[in-house]
Amino acid sequence: IVLTGGDDRLWKTWGFPDGNILMTGEGHTDWLSGCCFRPSGTQLVTSSGDTTVRIWDLSRRGCILTLRGHSRAVRACFWHSCGDFVASASMDATSKIWDVNSERCRYTLRGHKESVNSIEFLPFSSTALTSSADKTLSLWDVRTVSRL
To answer: How many domains does the chain have?
Structure first.
C-alpha cells in the first residue's frame, strides 16, 4: 500500500501491483503537503496548506481529529514510532509536537528564521530533525524543547 496526497486536497491509498485506489479521504480545504501512516497502520496523519494537521481513522474512513495552531501552511507531518505523538513543520517558521491522546500541542519548536519544510523523529528516540528554508538543519530534544 502506498499513501499519497496532492493539490486536489485528497489523500489516497493505492494497492500494488495493480495500482488500484483503495481508499480516498477528503476534508482539507487546501493542498496536501504531507501524509504518514501511524506505526500500527490503523490511522494516518496529513498536513495541508489550510494550516491544519488531521488524523484519519482508516476503519472509520474519516477524519477523527483536526489539530489547529499553525498560522501559515503546514509543509510536513510525521508520526513518532510510539504512535502517541505527531510532528508538524510550518511556513510560520515553527514546528509543533502534538499529543494525539490529549488532542493538543505539547511543544512548539522555535528557532528557524524561515519556513520549516520538513520534520521527522529519529527512530525510537525523543529527537526530531527539522530542515528550513533558512538553509539550516536542527536536531531537537522534544522532551526539553531544546536544540541539540
So the answer is: 1
